[in-house]
Design brief:
It is an enzyme of class 3 (hydrolase). Keywords: ATP-binding, Cytoplasm, DNA damage, DNA recombination, DNA repair, DNA-binding, Helicase, Hydrolase, Nucleotide-binding. The protein has helices at about 5-10, 15, 25-35, 45-65, 80-90, 105-115, 130-145, 180-185, 200-210, 220-225, 230-250, 255-265, 275-285, 295-300, 305-320, 335-340; strands spanning about 70-75, 95-100, 120-125, 145-150, 160-165, 170-175, 190, 215, 255, 325, 330. It has about 350 residues and is α/β, with parallel strands linked by helices. A five-stranded parallel β-sheet has the order 2-3-6-1-7, covered by helices on one side. Strands 4-5 form a two-stranded antiparallel sheet. The protein is globular. Residues about 1-15 and about 350-359 have low confidence and may be disordered. The structure holds adenosine-5'-diphosphate and magnesium ion.
């Protein structure tokens, strides 16, 4: 078939940014829904969280009561929404879903809470982004199953207490550190989700391939898993791109070479670095001799917004030991030089105050 690499890449260019982004966008949510584990038994990895949560739910079931409030924290794409749905499923209780940004007024929350039935599960995604007054209302609801609904304004305003049937709040946050202490303390159980190991991601890829009807050949799942940044959402996304490639170019079978060729085409390298990640390291090493260089300068040099460099590329690069944040700026580690196939300067930046390198 006459197909040019750059044509295929151009057609997908709008998707490029999101290929290794940990967040899901609109279309992706529908696909994700089909791939979500429905019960704790189906969840791959996170064994400690699974055991602990399993116990919390089982104990609540035996007592015939709504389980304690649960806080799920961790980076995007690791399974917070999935676990919230599993809690409702395992408790056989209806789930109501809202998010911090959607609750701008305490009244929004009062409306939701007053409509809850006994034992229901309320999932508040991005709970750290809720407004302050709503947060305060939530404390009371969580602890006393009661809210004060304020009627009217000014001196004539009156608070009408409203009882709420016992429910379970499941909060999810990517930034547990941003949650005010009093809110955090009202969760009976907090689960912190960790990045997944390659063998766990491989199991997830196999499971998803089964559900999507993708044929995996030798090494295919492992190759995708290795490039997924420890994140199931990315693993599932890369699987779909590799499936496209296999279908168009390789009779549909996802072998290791097919996965490699597909992901090389999409510029996701063998460690999961994408074009932006590599550009950052490249500029840092080649143009700034390994740093230290300020993040704003780095952003200008790669032609990106500072926020994009800081929030999209850096966390992954730091976590994988390619880049270090120092008070004087960003520096490339020996691993970064090695990954780019470059020889690090003899004296690495940060070792002394003034270090000069040959260009
Ligand atoms: N432990 C897991 N086992 C299998 N699939 C998972 C697991 N965790 C997440 N996934 C998959 O990854 C995708 C993203 O998970 P999600 O729960 O939406 O992440 P979060 O809410 O933390 O951003 C879902 O489609 C789900 O199928
Ligand atoms: Mg989510």
């Amino acid at each position: 078939m006459a197909f040019h690499e750059d044509e295929l890449a151009a057609a997908e260019d709008t998707h490029f940014r999101s290929l290794t982004a940990a967040e899901a966008d609109g279309d992706e949510r529908a696909v994700e829904a089909a791939l979500r584990p429905r019960s704790l038994d189906e969840v791959v990895g996170q064994s400690r969280v699974r055991d602990q949560l399993g116990l919390v739910l089982e104990a609540a079931r035996q007592r015939g009561r709504a389980p304690d409030h649960v806080l799920l924290s961790g980076p995007p794409g690791l399974g917070k929404t999935t676990l919230a749905m599993i809690i409702s499923h395992e408790m056989n209780a209806p789930l109501r879903i809202t998010s911090g940004p959607a609750i701008t007024h305490a009244g929004d929350l009062a409306a939701i809470l007053s409509g809850m039935n006994e034992g229901e599960v309320l999932f508040v995604d991005e709970i750290h982004r809720m407004s302050r007054p709503a947060e305060e209302m939530l404390y009371m609801a969580m602890e006393d199953f009661r809210v004060d609904v304020v009627i009217g304004k000014g001196p004539g305003a009156t608070a009408i207490p409203l009882e709420i049937p016992p429910f379970t709040l499941v909060g999810a946050t990517t930034r547990a550190g941003l949650l005010p202490g009093p809110l955090r303390d009202r969760f009976g159980f907090t689960a912190h989700l960790e990045f997944y190991e390659p063998d766990e991601l491989e199991l997830i890829v196999r499971r998803s391939a089964g559900l999507l009807g993708v044929d995996l050949g030798p090494g295919g799942a492992a190759e995708i898993a290795g490039r997924s940044r420890g994140t199931p959402r990315i693993a599932n996304r890369l699987l779909r791109r590799v499936r496209d490639y296999a279908q168009v170019r390789a009779d549909g079978l996802v072998t290791r070479p097919v996965a490699q060729a597909a992901l090389d085409l999409y510029e996701v390298d063998e460690l999961g670095l994408d074009r932006l990640d590599r550009a950052v390291l490249d500029v840092l090493c080649r143009r700034f001799g390994g740093g230290p260089v300020g993040v704003s300068t780095l952003a200008v040099a790669v032609g990106e917004e500072r926020e994009t460099v800081e929030e999209v590329a850096e966390p992954f690069l730091v976590r994988n030991g390619f880049l270090a944040r120092t008070p004087r700026g960003r520096i490339a580690t020996p691993a970064a030089w090695a990954h780019l196939g470059l020889t690090p300067p003899r004296q690495l930046p940060g070792a002394t105050d003034v270090t000069l390198f040959e260009a």
